[in-house]
Amino acid sequence: MAAIHLLLALGLAAFAKALTPLGVVVAFALVYVVLRTSGDLFGTRRYVTRLELGTTFLLWFIAEIFKASIDVARLVLGRRVDARPAVVAIRLQRADDRLATVIGCLLTLTPGTLALDYDPASGVLYVHALDAGSAAEIEEGVRNIEGRLLAWMDAERLPAKGSAS
């Protein structure tokens, strides 16, 4: 479905003679609006939901990276270095190696955190935090990432329109 969406957007942009990056983005948005407002007429409800959740996750994660960058900069550039590093063991909601890998990569991309190890047998992810107020605070951050990521991934499992939930 994503390929069809992109092809429709490219076709619309070419038709409008706007094959620039901005023109393609505008066309992509217009096709999205049509798919969103059509209900489930073309069987696109799951795709549109995944697109919305993915976009929301991406924007949220970019904002989190900026916030973490500011926190690390304050810590490093401050007159007093008052860092409280910690390693926290966090049991993931779903013991899945692929999910743990994605969460570990996202944590490592976030300044001030680093995924150290994952134990597939127990589903525990070990996270190093540069400045940990408490283990619960670090776990809350990981749970936030995990919850948003699972919502995005599980959108494919939404019941089809008209089926029993």
Number of domains: 1
Distance between the termini: 24 Å
Major beta sheet, specifics? 3 strands, antiparallel
What is the strand content? 5-15%
Structural class: mainly alpha
Number of helices: 5
What Rg is obtained from the alpha carbons, in whole angstroms?
Answer: 20 Å
> Fraction of residues in helices?
55-70%
Dominant shape: flat
What would the average pLDDT be, to the nearest integer?
83
The spatial strand order of the largest sheet comes to 1-3-2
Q: Count of DSSP E strands?
A: 3
- Reading the helices and strands in chain order gives HHHEHEEH
Low-confidence blocks of residues: none
Short précis:
This protein is mainly alpha-helical. The protein contains five helices and three strands; from the N terminus they run αααβαββα. A three-stranded antiparallel beta sheet has the order 1-3-2, covered by helices on one side.
